[in-house]
Amino acid sequence: MGKAPTLMLFFSCVLFSLCASSFAQTCKSYTFSSKRVYTSCQDLPVLSAFLHWSYDQSTNKVDIAFRLTGTSNSRWIAWGINPTGQGMVGAQALVAYQTSSSAMHAYTSPVPAYHTWLPEGSLSFGVSNLSATFENGNEMMIFATLALDGAMKTVNHVWQEGPLIEGNPRKHDISPGSPNLRSLGTLNLLDNHHV
After folding, report:
1. CATH number at residue 106
2. Which element (helix H / strand E) includes 8?
3. How many distinct structural domains can be found in the chain?
4. CB of 52 within 8 A of CB of 67?
5. For residue 51, what are the domain limits?
6. How many angstroms separate the CA atoms of 71 and 123, rounded?
7. What is the C-alpha to C-alpha distance for residues 96 and 140, in angstroms, rounded to an integer?
8. Quick check: is 4 in a domain?
9. Inside any domain, residue 65
């Protein structure tokens, strides 16, 4: 290959990378089709996920929107708070997926152990206004209002996604190095990650 074609290939790659990064989604640039507005947001480090929230200190209630992109209607998504530790075990989760009738199913699921199939159940804190959407053929969202204990201003949180098998959530990827094994962190609800 000559010098000119090599240079053209190099510059094409650079241009593509610049364009790709300029179109990369961030939580701050996102506009909800439902016109919902949140005061804070965070780009989560793995699974192409984003968290948006508004925290009311006077009531200890937090409105959340959890978004996961690059998914499909054969997948489930979940986001939760773990009041007792880090990771999935002990998490109080919000789960959503699209049913065979194309309706979205959103529900709460406490996670008492590994290998759970995310059965429905009540959480250790109140949840209202729970709903979910599947948009643009590749973006799933969960919306909810959480009534937290006043001491829960910094929380351990987890997020996840996995396959649906016969219409039910099944085990996510657990292979070494999988982003599913790194989908946890600490969230300060008072942080000013302003949109």
Report:
1. 2.60.40.1210
2. helix 3-22
3. 1
4. yes
5. 41-188
6. 26
7. 8
8. no
9. yes
CB of 48 within 8 A of CB of 23? Answer: no
- Specify if 6 maps to a domain: no
Three-class SS of 50-80:
EEEEEEECCCCEEEEEEEEECCCCCEEEEEE
Q: Is residue 11 part of a domain?
A: no
pLDDT category of residue 2 using cuts at 50, 70 and 90: low
Length of the chain measured in residues? 195
CA distance 47 to 27: 14
Distance CA 69, CA 138 (A): 6
Residue 152 near residue 124, CB atoms below 8 Å: no
Q: Residues 6 or more apart from 164 whose CB is under 8 A from it?
A: 74, 75, 76, 97, 170
* Cα R_g (the chain), whole angstroms: 19
pLDDT at residue 129, rounded to an integer: 98
**Run of H or E residues at 157:** strand 154-165
CA–CA gap between residue 43 and residue 24 (Å, rounded): 11
pLDDT of residue 195: 47
Q: What is the pLDDT of residues 23-81, one digit of tens each?
A: 457 899 899 988 899 999 999 999 999 999 999 999 999 999 999 999 999 899 999 99
What is the residue whose two structure tokens read 């996510």? 172
